[in-house]
Amino acid sequence: MVTIQASKKKVEESQYCEKPATPNSCLCKERRRMGIIREIPVAEAAAHKVLVEELDDAIDSITGRPLTGSWVWDSALVLSRWVSTHLNFQGKSVLELGAGAGLPGLTAALLGATRVVLTDVQQLLPGLLKNVEVNGFTDKVEVKQLVWGSDDSGITESSTFDIVLMSDVFFDSEDMIGLGKTLKRVCGEATQVWAAREMRPWTGECLDQLMAQGFQVVEQETSQLSVHAAVQDSNTFFAIFQIKPTLAENSQP
């Protein structure tokens, strides 16, 4: 079983930006209802800001419930903030899985990636397309439907990426088989896979499922991590993981 150290690390609030509302707060719900676009700083440089509109009308056609993936969650803020100081996106190709509102992938585009592909389920694609447009990234950011584990997607067998980004994907352990299959399709020998997650009781089980498929899971040191998000629960913790496919597993058809 993977050992998670993040329970000892609290997220610090950024000191240089206004705190946006969390997804469950009354203010954030009102912003989504009014369709206000958020300007989210993703690095200390003043120019490094991403525009994101959170949609409240993206509905799951099966359950009839709102698709909360269209909102910006704290894990996406954490990942965007972390990669802005730890990764070099210049000239890189980037894939975001379970993109939701697309903040980490849009951050990669802002910081120099030459090609970014944002993927999620069909219902979330209109919101992703709009966020690409409002940031002026239509020349280098694509939006594609991708259901984990499915062979029917816009990502071809020959499409490998330099960097894969994921936030809040470790939720249901039953989804990890499909996620693992997709990661093996899109990862080359040099691909880096980075994931951020708010720590929950089931996070370890999800990571164990990936390890059972031949992935290595390495938790990153995040003692200096800060996030421009208002975390309502003072006991909320986050972690950054690097997911490494083994060469033997990655070479399978």
Automatic annotation (TrEMBL):
<protein>
    <recommendedName>
        <fullName>Methyltransferase type 11 domain-containing protein</fullName>
    </recommendedName>
</protein>
<dbReference type="InterPro" id="IPR029063">
    <property type="entry name" value="SAM-dependent_MTases_sf"/>
</dbReference>
<dbReference type="Pfam" id="PF10294">
    <property type="entry name" value="Methyltransf_16"/>
</dbReference>
<dbReference type="InterPro" id="IPR019410">
    <property type="entry name" value="Methyltransf_16"/>
</dbReference>
